[in-house]
Fold this protein.
Amino acid sequence: MSETAAEAARPTTPQNAFRGVLGRLNLSTWAGIAIVVLLVLAAIFAPYLATHPPAKQSIMDQLAPPGGGYLLGADQFGRDIWSRLLFGARYSLAIGLFAILTALVIGSLIGMTAGYRGGRTDILLMQVMDVILAFPSLILGLALVALMGATMTNIVIAIAFTATPAFARIARAAVIAQRDREYVQACRAMGFSGGRILFRHILPAILPEVMVMTSLWMATAVRTEASLAFIGLGLAPPTPTWGGMVREGFENILSSFHLALFPSLAILILVLAFNLIGDGLRDAIDPRLKDAS
Amino acid sequence: MVGKNTSDKPVLSVSGLTIAFGSTTVVHDLSFGIAAGETLAVVGESGSGKSVTSLAIMGLLPERIGRASGSVKLGDRDLLTLDESEMRSVRGGQISMIFQEPMTSLNPVQRIGDQIGEAIRIHRGLKGAELREAVLEMLRKVRIPDPEERIDNYPHTFSGGMRQRVMIAMALACNPALIIADEPTTALDVTVQAQTLALLKELQRETGTAILFITHDMGVVAEIADHVLVMRRGRAIEQGTVHEVFSNPRDAYTRSLIAAAPSLVGKLADGTIPARGVEGVPLSFRGDAPVLEVRDLSVRFPSRGGLFGRLKGEVHAVEQVSFAIGKGETLGLVGESGSGKSTIGKAIIDLAPRHSGEITVAGRRIDYADPRSLASLRRDVQMIFQDPFGSLDTRQSIGSAIIEPMQVHGIASGKEARAKMEWLLERVGLDPARATSLPHEFSGGQRQRICIARALAMSPKLIIADEAVSALDVAIKAQIIDLMIDLQKEFEVSYLFISHDMAAVERICDRVAVMYFGEIVEIGARDDVIGRPGHGYTQRLLSAIPITHPDQRSARPPQRVDATPPRSPMKPVGYRPPPQSWEMMAEGHFIRRAS
């Protein structure tokens, strides 16, 4: 058994395996991570970084251009765009995060149950998921928010609702791939309960795939939230949301394009960052998928 | 030097072949030759460099990383100096290859006629009706029944053995000077293996092709080889004619390989033993009371089809099987793939549905609908699986894998469980200090030790070992079997040892049951069943097992090339099998009477 002596010299713990994934991340993934970290910091320290209160109007400074007293200019009510962007980041990030975490937990549970149980349970659960998936997420989110009213909780619920099937699908596929492996059979042979097998043995195996999905759907959630705000179904004014700022800036796009430009850029950068992270994670976790898409 | 007793020039002569991957040398200074019409067997365990050598001869080493130096002469040409386009004409034309896995080495979306025809078209330039006739001739040569019809079939309609014959036809299609056969029979059942080897030998006699035969099985070597080259860790450690190597092995490793072959088989006793009919089913066992008693176990899988999933029929995987195992006793369950032997093990521990039957463990009848009865079954009966790489959770440390079942069943927890785990690791020959390591840090044999420790953690009465040593190299296999025998004495545990490997069965089992199409056809003490088989199938199975010494070649009966399609296990719904009747050959040795 000499061949294992060399292997034993460098034991691999889960922490090491995680470090291995981090080591395989490419430059653009790190750029994505850096952007998200910066934006989260900006959102947390918004009160310190802002130069003006975000809702403070100033008749004198309506549509002021960038530079001067206002870093990125002022909007049609004379509110500082820089400060509003900083506070807006809080809503974009919070809604995206809570919506996707909710979808992650519920969707994964549904998918794991469907995949592990199989048969009728599987068919029933996944048919429901497919029906939800058949609607474009923006239309479905729009209908839900219009129905329930545009509060923070309702927007989170609406976006979570649209993202749940995606997590259910990926969790189900991953569980099915594991379910018939011999180690799962061994667990069943030793009399472990279904819950124990699912959560202690199968869940860690499917986690990487779910993580990739999470960051990719964060991007979609941010976009959906901005789109809802743009068509007027976001948080009510004067709450500064990026989508809402784009809409307000749109009215003066010909005279003062900076009103719409800066929040649009903010949305673009955040969505791009989440996509970069998702793609990079996927490549690092499973190099075989690199050229798949 | 190989080839010294053949006067003619070798077809292939390799000298000083050294192969390196990057900075690691995997094959050191290898030299051998093969003459026309001769078979050289290259023997070694996984990682010994035997397959890499064949890839180097074919010029198929991975580009950029693999480098070969020395010389590989086919006739007068040194293959190592040829460029890729020249090599292409050599491959398939002068050298062809037969691979291990007949299920994956054929293209599933091409008719077999087209696949054989492609090589002939490229290398011999035949077309149209001429090409078709040439393909038909090849199919006849490899004894494919109804070749006119089968030529237009797809690979999935062929059995494993038939596919390997198609592969052989492809390899022979262009009259190659050399065929490289890389473990061509390893994936086949033993009876099919015997037929395939017989066919290869016969075709070699007709065509005079040289064969480089790569294998890990000394039995196959004894059957087919003229010369033998034993490899270990990239070096040739022994070389000579097959008689020299088997009669006077010089190297200790070669001796251990030869010793691993089954020894009872092939020494069949002469004469017929009078048999008498017996009442009921044979439930004999050793000792006072059986640990496991299986009565009339049947397993059927529904086969549905059509638009509404109508029940078309049932696959009778296991049919009215009865047997018993005594305390500290090992019953071997042997049979070929698809005979239902694994399904029996799974049905006992509720991993497969039981259609009917009664299972009693330690005197208690198991009620599978009762959670308490099921829980006690799961304590008393443990299972060891075939794949030591698949049956452990890759993310769980081995210590925790052994402790978890103890906690789940409330046998031990905390410090007590830890102590028991460490003690068990020591018992199976592993260092308890490595309890925090993950499974991938262990070799295949070590992992199987971990699985054994995990099974023993429950202090079971019975361990079902489902092909538990089949995936291991010969030397490791012997160690694990010895460990299982030692532990059996210490823990007084019984084994149900499911395997197709007769050498392993012979070594560990007290009694043997032979399975054929879901039924036990013969059961009895090991020496009786293996030494004096009574049932026709057992006799056929045993005669197909490779011989242990080349001197026995003339003594064994000729292998018929069997063309009959296998029996279908699919039966119409409500099918009732005919009642069984048994004959007793000797005390505790029963055979099924033909119905």
User: Anything to note?
Assistant: Residues 42 and 49 of chain A are 7 Å apart (CA to CA). Residues 92-229+266-286 of chain A form a domain with the MetI-like fold fold (CATH 1.10.3720.10). Chain A touches chain B through 26 residues (CB under 8 Å). Residues 1-16 of chain A have pLDDT under 50 and may be disordered.
